[in-house]
UniProtKB/TrEMBL annotation:
SUPFAM superfamilies: Glyoxalase/Bleomycin resistance protein/Dihydroxybiphenyl dioxygenase. The lineage of its organism: Bacteria, Bacillati, Actinomycetota, Actinomycetes, Kitasatosporales. The keyword NAD does not apply. InterPro entries: Glyas_Bleomycin-R_OHBP_Dase, Glyas_Fos-R_dOase_dom, MMCE/EMCE_epimerase, VOC_core. Keywords: Metal-binding. This is VOC family protein. CDD domains: BphC5-RrK37_N_like. Signal peptide: none annotated.
Length: 315
């Protein structure tokens, strides 16, 4: 594993989805979910969070098959992007593109590659910042993208790949007496996790999480989505690992999306990962306010088999 002072990723930028019913998905994310459409061109749209300097946090692309197009992370400089690309090549990682000018809002210097499960990952630097603003009290829209959780059929292999090649560090693990390790929380900065890796039957997206201003805004937003008739999977509650609030919903195509707030920030020099027993209700929800986690809820977040594995998105 790389030393922390050699870590080249800085933060999560955006998550890109391909969707069969494009108009319905766009209405959801730019409507009740509270993102802002900032650009659109022939079946592809870019959605920003008002409190984030990222040009966009979700990209939607009209496609015949539902898939995760890519996950994008930031690096500090173009030189870091180039260095990471060379490291990955030397480590036998399959590059989709070499570092070069990004043809997306904000531009930048970027490249793409496949992770061990065949997901497309992008790393970029020098992306122009979007003019953003402070989210006001009682304004129940996402401040920023919080994290993404991915399903993997070989949890330990995927964890080790991200540690070795991208210098993710383990924050905490959920474990059950029956199933063993079921979820690893992985970080690239002080935030408890930018990515989670979940044990699933196939490679797919588990959920995308959006940070709200605070607990009041998180509850108001959760209530708005519930009143709009979208299916609530789980919540409201508060996890033990990460200490963040959660409410999970299904978007119109069955992707799980989360409102969260108050995710823990760690002292990376002194932090030691915990192993929490996922079967204990106080681990999944400290408050005791969420509906009980069960197999049906878990299966919803397994999502459909991702049809984009080891197939680069067209854009």
């Amino acid at each position: 594993m790389l030393r922390n002072d050699m870590r080249l990723l800085t933060h999560l930028r955006h998550v890109d989805l391909a969707v069969p019913d494009y108009d319905k998905q766009l209405d959801f994310y730019a409507g009740v979910w509270g993102l802002t459409k900032v650009a659109e061109d022939s079946g592809i749209s870019f959605l920003a969070a008002e409190g984030s300097p990222e040009q966009y946090v979700v990209r939607l692309r009209k496609a015949e098959e539902k898939r995760l197009d890519l996950i994008s992370y930031g690096a500090a400089t173009p030189a870091d992007v180039d260095t990471l690309a060379e490291r990955l090549l030397a480590g036998g990682v399959q590059l989709i593109s070499r570092p070069g000018r990004a043809d997306t809002p904000g531009g930048g210097h970027a490249f793409r590659f496949f992770d061990v499960d065949g997901r497309t990952v992008e790393v970029s630097a020098d992306v122009a910042a979007r003019q953003h603003r402070r989210i006001e009290e009682k304004e129940a829209i996402p401040v920023r993208l919080s994290h993404v959780v991915l399903n993997s059929p070989d949890l330990e292999r995927t964890r080790q790949w991200y540690e070795r090649h991208l210098d993710f560090a383990l924050s905490d693990t959920l474990n059950s007496p029956q199933a063993g390790d079921v979820l690893h929380f992985m970080r690239i900065n002080r935030r408890h996790h930018s990515m989670g890796l979940a044990k699933g039957p196939h490679t797919s997206l588990h959920h995308i999480s959006f940070e709200m201003r605070g607990l009041d805004e998180y509850m108001r937003g959760s209530g708005r989505v519930m009143r709009a008739g979208h299916r609530k999977l789980w919540g409201p509650g508060r996890h033990l690992a990460g200490d963040n609030a959660f409410t999970y919903f299904l978007d119109p195509h069955g992707n799980t999306v989360e409102y969260t707030t108050e995710l823990e920030e760690l002292d990376e020099d002194t932090w030691h990962p915990h192993v929490y027993d996922f079967s204990k209700p106080e681990v999944t929800d400290q408050w005791g306010t969420a509906n009980a986690m069960n197999e049906l809820i878990a299966k919803e977040s397994f999502n459909d088999v991702d049809r984009g594995v080891f197939i680069a998105p067209p854009v």
